[in-house]
Design goal:
Length: 246
């Protein structure tokens, strides 16, 4: 008797990415998702809220939706069981968890939902999380975006399921920066809505996994307690190098 196939989480995610039809092997995400506003007047994006709520499930689901919704009305309709499989949940009991995660993303105004037969039709909204209609980013100074390479999901290291939430958040922050940009941890709460502890733990994990390198430089500061200022510069390494701000 032939056994019925049981696709794994990696199988489902790989098929979803393949079906997206993206030729560039990356997913574009506006910088506004991690940091709104302009230089000197920046404030945290909705990523900080997801991390504050420890909602890695909603973050994973949103990034998969971004990967799959590649054009048209920027919407996806798939059975809840498929989304559950992509999240590593039981395909039957995980449907309720998927529905609740969509609800949380809907309340954050990142997605809008409707019905398509017996399936939810989920449509992207603007990364500003202001409820406005989604349009592809222009890649201009006023509308910058960065790239998440497919390697995030398809690398043998399967970062999408092996990185913890602080590391995922800081990887998105690092990708949103110019190469070798300075990132003072003391400013992370104001800029990204992440605590210094969360940012520090996330960067350490990314360094350990070889995804980013941190270069520390010092400048004299004779009137401070230490006598110097420390400057941390972040550089994305490995297969993620082709990401970065556009």
């Amino acid at each position: 008797m032939t056994r019925r196939p049981r696709p794994s989480r990696d199988d489902a995610v790989g098929a979803l990415l393949q079906q997206s039809g993206r030729t560039g092997q990356h997913v574009g995400l506006r910088r506004a998702f991690v940091q709104r506003g302009k230089a000197g007047h920046s404030r945290p994006g909705v990523l900080g809220e997801l991390v504050r709520r420890h909602d890695d499930r909603a973050l994973d689901l949103y990034l998969l939706l971004k990967a799959k919704a590649s054009g048209g009305e920027w919407n996806v309709h798939l059975p809840a069981a498929v989304w559950a499989r992509c999240l590593g949940l039981d395909e039957t009991r995980g449907r309720a968890a998927v529905s609740k995660a969509w609800q949380r993303l809907e309340r954050l105004e990142l997605v809008a939902r409707a019905r398509s037969g017996r399936m939810a039709d989920v449509r992207l909204l603007h990364e500003e999380a202001d409820g406005t209609v989604y349009e592809p980013p222009a890649g201009t100074r006023r509308d910058p975006y960065f790239k998440i390479p497919f390697a995030y999901w398809l690398s043998p290291d399967r970062y999408y399921r092996t990185l913890d939430l602080p590391a995922k958040a800081m990887l998105l922050v690092a990708l949103s920066l110019k190469d070798d940009a300075e990132l003072p941890l003391v400013r992370v709460p104001d800029w990204y809505g992440l605590s210094e502890d969360t940012a520090g733990r996330g960067l350490k994990e990314l360094e350990r996994r070889g995804l980013v390198s941190v270069r520390v430089a010092y400048t004299p500061a004779p009137l401070t307690v230490t006598g110097y200022h420390e400057h941390r510069h972040i550089r994305v390494d490995s297969e993620f190098r082709n990401g970065g701000l556009l």
